[in-house]
């Protein structure tokens, strides 16, 4: 895009400005201008030159440095993986084909966790790749608006931001339809990683979707190793999405390929059933099969019934909150955000069962409150909302 091509275009309407929206808005932008801009390219040359200088290897760094969001905090949680657009039906209890309309919402499990932690008052950063498109820059904006550091975000000019249509059917089962052929998140390369942020993490959190294809798979492994080498705890939520994997076997093998490197693992009953090839997910002996020697905490979520926890020294169950469910999208991610917030601030939870139970009670409330609204990120609660909900239970 030549600089001259921008000269006679209103700065608020140009493609360049749309790209700049992921950072601070241009002080020269004029909303709603319908004619030639009075501010010529001479004024903006340094801004645009800076923008194009950031292009490298087919990607662009997010513009927002988020100076108000520190990346050297001792409780920083860095979340790695996909960020996408969820389309959620405006009417509950229908299949995707039956839904009359959809609501656009930001999503993607690792990004949900990052925003969830920031909403709860913690420090979070996100590392991943989106398309150099309107949805991609919208997602970068959403991270910044929610005080999530997005310096590690990259934009791909050759691939679109991923889309997912998700609904909760009348039978209670979720239905997914993904558009990734390939999407930008699948194309993140190792040389695009922001290692400075990764090495500052107290906890490095990820899922399994980034393990499905190259080059993202190798990038995932490299990022996790860098975090571990720097002293971070590794947090893993497999987040099983079978339609995205080439086969059932590849999904099981892929998820388990990095199992033994994690310090914290969160799984659902469905995932236990899948990973153990059909064993009873309610049997503690079955769950213990998934507990590897270096694991510090294994968490099993049970939806409205709460969660189970397993450590080297103790195990138990913490009840959930009863709420009216509207959309379960993001509930597990909100739970993860709640528990990682506490662990990042105080890792002694691994040794103190009473303290761990209190943290899990908080995490259960995070998950429960999220299902009362549509979408994942729009529904993630604040710390004040969670504490209020817990206080009401004691009244």
TrEMBL record:
CDD domains attached to this UniProt entry: bac_FRK
Mind naming one GO cellular-component term on file for this protein? cytosol
Q: Name one GO biological process term.
A: fructose metabolic process
Pfam families named among the record's database cross-references: PfkB
Q: Please name the InterPro entries in this protein's record.
A: Carboh/pur_kinase_PfkB_CS, PfkB_Carbo_kinase, PfkB_dom, Ribo/fructo_kinase, Ribokinase-like
The Enzyme Commission number assigned here is 2.7.1.4
Q: Which GO terms describe its molecular function?
A: ATP binding; fructokinase activity
Q: The Carbohydrate kinase PfkB domain covers which part of the protein? A: 76-382
Q: Name the chemical reaction catalysed here.
A: D-fructose + ATP = D-fructose 6-phosphate + ADP + H(+)
Q: Which domain of life is it from?
A: Eukaryota
Keywords of the record, alphabetical order, are: ATP-binding, Carbohydrate metabolism, Kinase, Nucleotide-binding, Transferase
- Pathway given in the UniProt record: Glycan biosynthesis; starch biosynthesis
Which family, according to the similarity comment? Belongs to the carbohydrate kinase PfkB family.
Q: What is this protein called?
A: fructokinase
* Origin species: Vanilla planifolia
């Amino acid at each position: 895009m030549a600089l001259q091509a921008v000269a006679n275009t209103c700065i608020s309407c140009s493609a360049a400005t749309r790209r700049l929206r992921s950072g601070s808005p241009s002080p020269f932008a004029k909303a709603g201008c319908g004619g030639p801009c009075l501010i010529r390219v001479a004024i903006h040359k340094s801004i645009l030159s800076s923008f194009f200088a950031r292009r490298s290897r087919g990607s662009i760094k997010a513009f927002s440095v988020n100076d108000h969001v520190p990346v050297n905090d001792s409780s920083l949680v860095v979340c790695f993986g996909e960020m996408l657009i969820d389309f959620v039906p405006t009417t509950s209890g229908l299949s995707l084909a039956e839904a009359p309309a959809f609501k656009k919402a930001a999503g993607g499990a690792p990004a949900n966790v990052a925003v969830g932690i920031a909403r709860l008052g913690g420090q979070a950063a996100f590392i991943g790749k989106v398309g150099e498109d309107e949805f991609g820059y919208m997602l970068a904006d959403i991270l910044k608006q929610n005080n999530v550091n997005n310096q590690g975000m990259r934009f791909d000019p050759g691939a679109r931001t991923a889309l997912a249509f998700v609904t909760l059917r009348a039978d209670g089962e979720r239905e997914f339809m993904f558009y990734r052929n390939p999407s930008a998140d699948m194309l993140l390369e190792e040389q695009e990683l922001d290692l400075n942020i990764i090495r500052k993490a107290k906890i490095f959190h990820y899922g399994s979707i980034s393990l499905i294809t190259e080059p993202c798979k190798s990038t995932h492994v490299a990022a996790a190793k860098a975090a571990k080498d720097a002293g971070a705890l590794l947090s893993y939520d497999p987040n099983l999405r079978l339609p995205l994997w080439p086969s059932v076997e590849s999904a099981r093998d892929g998820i388990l390929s990095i199992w033994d490197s994690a310090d914290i693992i969160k799984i659902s009953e469905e995932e236990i059933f899948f990973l153990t090839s059909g064993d009873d997910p309610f049997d503690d002996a079955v769950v213990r099969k998934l507990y590897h020697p270096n694991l510090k905490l294994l968490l099993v979520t049970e939806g409205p019934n709460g969660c189970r926890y397993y450590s080297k020294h103790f195990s138990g169950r913490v009840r959930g909150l009863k709420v009216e469910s509207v959309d379960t999208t993001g509930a597990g991610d909100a739970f993860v955000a709640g528990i990682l917030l506490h662990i990042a601030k105080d890792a002694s939870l691994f040794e103190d069962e009473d303290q761990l139970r209190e943290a899990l009670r908080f995490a259960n409330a995070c998950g429960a409150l999220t299902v009362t609204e549509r979408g994942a990120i729009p529904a993630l609660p604040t710390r004040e909302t969670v504490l209020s909900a817990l206080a009401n239970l004691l009244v």
